[in-house]
Amino acid sequence: MTYLSLHDRLRGPIAQALKKELKVENIHALPRLDKVVVNVGINRANMEGKEMLELVMSSLSKITGQKPVQRLSRKAISNFKIRKGLVVGAVVTLRGKRMEEFLDRLVSFVLPRIRDFRGLPTKLDGHGNYAIGLTDHTVFPEVPSGDVQKTFGLQIQITTKAKDDATARALFKQMGIPFRPEKKSATT
Q: Are 94 and 165 in contact (CB under 8 A)?
């Protein structure tokens, strides 16, 4: 049996399962993915220097397949030693096929590679969006772990067109995102 990509599964079996689960007749009323934003914050204390910025930008472009955009600080904050116009992060916004391919790799390859992985928290933001924080970027197979001197974390924000958290959670479960099993309350 061949493996169907997330693009094909979203339009085929996942859509049919969501229609049954959510009791929706119109396929256009089903929740769907809008975009994925991959963000890396650059800490001045730990990531000083041009080489570290180049490492972050090249690693993020390898991971996402798209060139990241540098984010500059809007104002100076003396306690954090940040001046106005200083690079404080890098961000990539994925849509369409690239987004689906990235999520497919994330669910199939990256999350199982995390050490002591017990599932993702089930908490969404109230509007059907989900954020995943990873502390080590070397779990992605695109980044060879032997060449990396320093590691950095990244945040993945998955935005959906769902109306509420319950419908978005149903979409994520059908996509195969491994949520933690819910703990049963000990009532006597």
A: no
